[in-house]
Amino acid sequence: MKRTTLLFGFFVLALLALASTSHAACPDGNYAVKGWNPGVPTSGKESYTGTVAIKTVGDVCQLDWKIGSQVFGGVGTYDAATKMLNIAYGELKAGWFGLVFYKDAGAALNGQWVVYGDKTGKLGTEILTKQ
Asked: For the whole model, what pTM was predicted?
């Protein structure tokens, strides 16, 4: 019960922090994903590949990833002034969550991510390319 309460509290705090940004339509669409786990240099082979769908629901961006056999979701906002997509994501049934921040570079969304409990102290990297 405490773990679920902690996870719920994290998401509430993350959403409150994101609520202060200027909202705009999300960069909706289907994207190819390639990513590198924390500490893995982006000059090497990616750690994972997959797809993600981004859709706007009111002022909120919803993301659904499929990475191999894993499927997980995220929610957050897009700040038009900074071109930043800020997302809290996770798989609460499995007991994990994280944050990812993407910079909209036009042809791609370039992101850095972290998962709660990661012991490396480093950020992962993820690139979304519109399909």
From this structure: 0.82
Q: How far apart are CA 79 and CA 112, in angstroms?
A: 16
Q: Say what the pLDDT of residue 1 is.
A: 46
CA separation for the pair 47, 122 (Å, rounded): 15
Q: Which domain holds residue 7?
A: 2-130
Residue percentage of the chain with pLDDT more than 70: 82
Number of folded domains that form the chain: 1
Q: Which residues is 86 bridged to in the sheet?
A: 77, 101
Q: What is the pLDDT of residues 78-113, one digit of tens each?
A: 999 999 999 999 987 888 999 999 999 988 999 999
3-state secondary structure the chain: CHHHHHHHHHHHHHHHHHCCCCECCCCCEEEEEEEECCCCCCCCCCCEEEEEEEEEECCEEEEEEEECCEEEEEEEEEECCCCEEEEEEEEHHHCEEEEEEEEECCCEEEEEEEECCCCCCCCEEEEEEEC
